[in-house]
Structures are given as C-alpha cells and as structure tokens.
Amino acid sequence: MKLRALIAIAGLTLSALAPLTVSAQKSARSYQTVNPGLVGRAQQVTGDRFTVATTTPQGVAVVARMMPRPEVLNAIDQGFAELFAVAQRHGYQNHLNFRDYTVFIARADRIKNSSGQYSPDIAIGASQYAGSVYDQGGFVYAAGMVLAFSPSAFVIAEHDRDLGRVSNVVRYEGEHILLYYNDRRLYAQTADHSRGGSHPILQ
After folding, report:
1. By CB atoms within 10 Å of each CB, which of 63, 111, 132, 178 scores lowest?
2. Which domain covers residue 126, as residue numbers?
C-alpha cells in the first residue's frame, strides 16, 4: 500500500537549503525552476540534503542526493508514460505533461520489507495510520509520498535494481496528483489509503 500526504510548503527560508549541482546533461529546464521552498521541505521531511538537480529525457525535473543513473531517469519517464496513457483512456486532459512534475529521490530507510523482498521505502510519520497494522511505532514505510500539487512533486526512495518498481511507484504517486487535477471526486475517495484501497487506482 502506498501512502499519500499533502504537505504545505509556505514559510520556508532559503538559507537552510543545500546548494544544488546542475547536471550538464539537463535539457532546457534550469534548476532555478525547481521551487526552492519545495526543496527545503523535502529535505525537512526526509532528512536528506538534495544537492543535485537534473531532468529525465522527457523533461521531468529530478532532485536527488547524487546524480541518478540514466536507467533510473528512464524508469521515471516510463512510469509517467504509463500514467498518461491510462489517464487518456479515462478522458483526462489536464496535467499530462512530463514537465509538470518534479520527483525527489531520497535515501531509503529500509531496503527489504517484512517478507524479505527488495522494497526501498521511506519512513514518515504514522499520522492517520497510527494504531493500524502499518504503524511501526509512530511511523510507516511508504514507497513514495506526494509533497505538493502546485508545483506538482513527490518523493520516492533510491533504487539500485528492480527499476520496474521505480516506474510503478512513479505511476502510483502520480495518480494522486493527476486525479487532483482531473477528478476531484475520485481523488477524495482514494487520497487516504488508511480507509482502504490501493494502487493502481486507474485501470
């Protein structure tokens, strides 16, 4: 089960931000277009220092602790391509541009799940999941988490293999943002997985 959480980004100071190194391989998007308050909030949530900014071949902004491998950037694009394809089948028209999104890649807080399977996840506060089977003592493990809708951004964990899982997590976290812009009723029904339901939301 994947967890979604909307986090406000107002009121952050830029002095707390780590400097970003911009990839020479980037396309037209410059790092200044990565919202600095969003970078600061992502660092606050994950405890990481995001020092690298780049883009995928299709133009998704990617902010990370270290330069992602080309295979990871391609996996991110693949996840969005799958998301956009299913969205179009549902008649959705908004927010179907790769450049609409920013993906943060954070250090994984665990590498394997309780079954011993490879599952890089991040630890976040239990919040509405407190007391549930997902509560690990005040926190839960999540494959990804939505940080904001405008600018649209989410965070995933670093992977060194099973990059198909990266594509899946990108598609699943992207579903929440895409539904927010296209179908508020379905978004409201599926935003909080503590009430049941899982990904993929859109078939």
Report:
1. 132
2. 14-191
CATH label of the domain that carries residue 95: 3.40.30
Q: Which residue has the tokens 């089960």?
A: 1
At 99, give phi and psi (nearest 5°).
Answer: -75, -5
Stretch 155-168: mean pLDDT, rounded? 95
Pairing of strands 52-55, 61-64: antiparallel
* 31, pLDDT greater than 60: no
| pLDDT band at residue 194 using 50, 70 and 90 as cut-offs | low
Question: What are the φ and ψ backbone dihedral angles of 104, each rounded to 5 degrees?
Answer: -95, 140
Confidence of residue 145 (pLDDT cuts 50, 70, 90): confident
Neighbouring-strand partners of residue 156:
105, 144
H or E element, residue 64: strand 61-64
Is there a contact between 174 and 187 (Cβ–Cβ < 8 Å)?
no
The rounded distance, in Å, linking the Cα atoms of 52 and 197 is 35
